Amino acid sequence: MLTLSVNGRDYEIDAEPGTPLLWVLRDTIGLTGTKFGCGQALCGACTVHVDGQAMRSCATPVEAVAGSSVTTIEGIEGDEARAVQTAWQTLDVVQCGYCQSGQIMTTVALLTENPVPTDADIDGALTGNICRCATYHRIRAAVHEAARLLEA
Ligand code: FES
Ligand code: FES
């Protein structure tokens, strides 16, 4: 049994220590906004924040985050999260939507560290977040729009 802090709430989790965090989030806790894509840390669909850092929950054993603060797409808040949500809606970024919670989690972590990212910064941060619908141009524009909102 281990205690997991997710979106500000503590959960007692009965799982093998090596169970991927993603399974615990989706199957045990029921937070299905975090998606399963590749299961191999290659696509970014499963990205969450662990103590504010973007991490691939499919490749993170649940025991590794006991005692840390995990945030999922359902729990993001604050100026960066609001700016990203607004920008995503304004620029109508989403197509099928499958990759987008991962894209947003990576973007919020990026803007928290770097509020005015360049194209290269954006491409560097999001390079591991794959979008099969190829919304990359709108994502990049929305990151700039979110940065503009944060500056305003
Ligand atoms: S499902 Fe985790 S990176 Fe693809
Ligand atoms: S919006 Fe469809 S996979 Fe990215």
Any descriptors?
39% helix, binds FE2/S2 (inorganic) cluster
Task: Describe this protein's structure.
This protein has helices at 21-29, 79-90, 100-113, 119-126, 136-151; strands spanning 2-6, 9-13, 47-50, 53-56, 69-71. The longest helix has 16 residues, at 136-151. It is an alpha+beta fold. Strand 1 (2-6) and strand 2 (9-13) form a beta hairpin. The N and C termini lie far apart (46 Å). The chain is 39% helix and 14% strand. A 5-stranded mixed sheet has the order 2-1-5-3-4, sandwiched between helices. It binds FE2/S2 (inorganic) cluster (2 copies). Residues 36-39, 41-46, 56, 58 line the site of one FE2/S2 (inorganic) cluster.
Ranges with pLDDT <50 over ≥5 residues? none
Structural class: alpha+beta
Task: Summarize the main sheet.
Answer: 5 strands, mixed
Query: What's the SSE pattern?
Result: EEHEEEHHHH
Give the C-alpha Rg. Answer: 15 Å
Q: Termini separation (Å)?
A: 46 Å
What sort of overall outline do the alpha carbons produce when their principal axes are compared?
Answer: globular
Proportion of helical residues: 25-40%
Average pLDDT reading: 97
How would you concisely characterize the structure shown here?
It contains 5 helices and 5 strands. The protein has helices spanning 21-29, 79-90, 100-113, 119-126, 136-151; strands at 2-6, 9-13, 47-50, 53-56, 69-71. The N and C termini lie far apart (46 Å).
